[in-house]
Amino acid sequence: MSTPETVTVPSPIPEPAEGRTAHHRRYLMCRPEHFTVSYKINPWMEPAKPTDTAKAVAQWQMLHDLYLELGHEVELIDPLEGFPDMVYTANGGFVIDGRAYVPKFRFVERAGEAPAFADWFRAGGFDTVEPEEVNEGEGDFLLVGDTILAGTGFRSTGDSHREVGEVFGREVVSLNLIDPRFYHLDTAISVLDPVEGAANGGPERANIAYLPGAFDDASRAILEERFPDAILVADADGAVFGLNSASDGYNVIISPRATGFEKQLRERGYNPITVDLSELLLGGGGIKCCTLELRAARDSEVDA
Ligand code: ARG
């Protein structure tokens, strides 16, 4: 028996509590028309297990439609046959201030996606920067305030952390991932607040939620020092890809299985909304993996 698709959008979406503001977002997504699991490059993938492409598309559509309902913009890149992981657009680049840093995939199975993303950025008028170093885009690079948190250990290399810092002229904080289930940084950290919350006169500094067990001791110490108010997510919520979420500063889209995290978010004044991407989890990806943020050049940035 297949489980019913669940998306719980409280209707109407409640107004942000004091101190939280929903910010307009522009995202890049890719409809999983060719989704399947035909190779194994992370522990979640089991090529022998059947996948249901129609179900993947239906679940993805719920996320897509929810973004629109929340007032965000969604751009689409055409899915390429033979690249079942292209749905995970977070790995398609890292975009700040209208500049797009192109990925260089760790595994040959995904290498052919990079030129497609680069072409899409060029056609869209982004200042497109080709990489020298192995990096998997927003899967491993997260912008928090003015700082780039950068993950390494499984996919993006330490050299790509230097390169991304040069490309964007921003501070980069390197973090070591140690658990193969959480092989991209966006599976272990969720950025909750909009860019430059405090710098924009917002109520507080940009905050994050994270899964402590995904990091080595040194990286955990850095996170504790930099984010004393972070939400520490329990292993049970991390293990169901609870951190792989998308936030606009108020609405936080999360897996329905991450019930503890949902409660923590609510306590902090966020509005968690659950979307079930169970089929896409068979490829080792979730909500954030299917979402790449397109940050415009500063002067054209408009908040909702
Ligand atoms: N199967 C894909 C891979 O292993 C999943 C990518 C998930 N993306 C992410 N941003 N975490 O590369």
TrEMBL record:
Keyword Membrane annotated: no
Cross-referenced SUPFAM superfamilies:
Pentein
Q: Which GO terms describe its molecular function?
A: dimethylargininase activity
Q: Where is this region: Disordered?
A: 1-20
Keywords, in A-Z order: Hydrolase
Coiled-coil portions? none
| TM helices/strands, residue ranges | none
Q: Identify the EC number(s).
A: 3.5.3.18
Its name, as the record gives it, is Dimethylargininase
Q: Which gene encodes it?
A: ddaH
